[in-house]
Amino acid sequence: MKTPDLHKGFTLIELLVVIAIVAILAALLIPTAARSLEAARAVQCLSQLRQLSIAAHNYAANRNGRLPPAYAQNRFEDGRLLRAEWDYITEVDWTQGGRQSRRPGLLWEDEIDVRVHQCPSFRGADNAHGDPYTGYNYNTSYLGRGPAEANPEPVRLQDVRSPTTCAMFGDGEYADGANKFMRAPFDDVDKGGDRFAFRHTGTQGFRHAGRTHVVFVDGHTAALATAYGGPQAVARNVAPGTGFISPDNRLYNLD
């Protein structure tokens, strides 16, 4: 009687069947894993935007309701240039050959983990001045403003007549990478807006499975799916995957 060969290996056909099964399982599981990872990133992004809005409210609570400026006038002192913006203060020390250093910006009154500024789904170029973390922008047209704006003074929270529909922070992105200054699609100085010439540089990135994240003045967050190009002169410069969050200024302004 012949003893069975217990050491017999797989045949070529059996190996091919196993490989095919593994490939099918991978094809089924990889997209699911990718979706789960993006869902986790989306949750983190919304949480970070909420933290930015809380910081803005805390700032206003200590300043008679007035929100932080989007940027301040550059200052020169003792051979140093100080460039103060809502997210970072950049110091350029010309006595040290132009060496640059950064610290938390106008929004922050205490030391913070600046990684809160990094959208986990953003993969483009950073903001100007080489900011180490980037991906969010602040409503500069109507809320933060700044010294070069038609209306330079930041608004008071109590002057925002519709906090549920006025965007505060969001996923900033345009053709060249990130942007930190959110712009409304149309000039609207009569209603407290701006006359900024390069509005396409203040758009939002629709990078979360085709959606963009926004936190509004009242603190609630939203994932919006429709990107708008704005007026024709602006729309021609708006990059694919970016855009404004409303066809007009309704989700940006004070009304």
SSE map:
Elements: H1 12-61, E1 75-77, E2 80-84, E3 88-93, E4 99-104, E5 136-139, H2 140-144, E6 167-171, E7 181-182, E8 204-205, E9 212-216, E10 221-224, H3 232-235, E11 242-243
Parallel strand pairs: 5-7
Antiparallel strand pairs: 1-2, 2-3, 3-4, 5-6, 6-9, 8-11, 9-10
Describe this structure in words.
The chain is of the alpha+beta class and 255 residues long. It has one domain. The protein is built from 3 helices and 11 strands. It has helices at 12-61, 140-144, 232-235, and strands at 75-77, 80-84, 88-93, 99-104, 136-139, 167-171, 181-182, 204-205, 212-216, 221-224, 242-243. The protein has a 5-stranded mixed sheet with strand order 7-5-6-9-10. It has a 4-stranded antiparallel sheet with strand order 1-2-3-4, with no helix packed on it. Strands 8-11 form a two-stranded antiparallel ribbon. A hairpin with a 2-residue loop joins β1 (75-77) and β2. The longest helix has 50 residues, at 12-61. It starts with 11 loop residues before the first helix and ends in a 12-residue tail after the last strand. The model has no long low-confidence stretch (mean pLDDT 89).
What keyword list fits this structure?
globular; 255 residues; alpha+beta; five-stranded mixed beta sheet; single chain; four-stranded antiparallel beta sheet
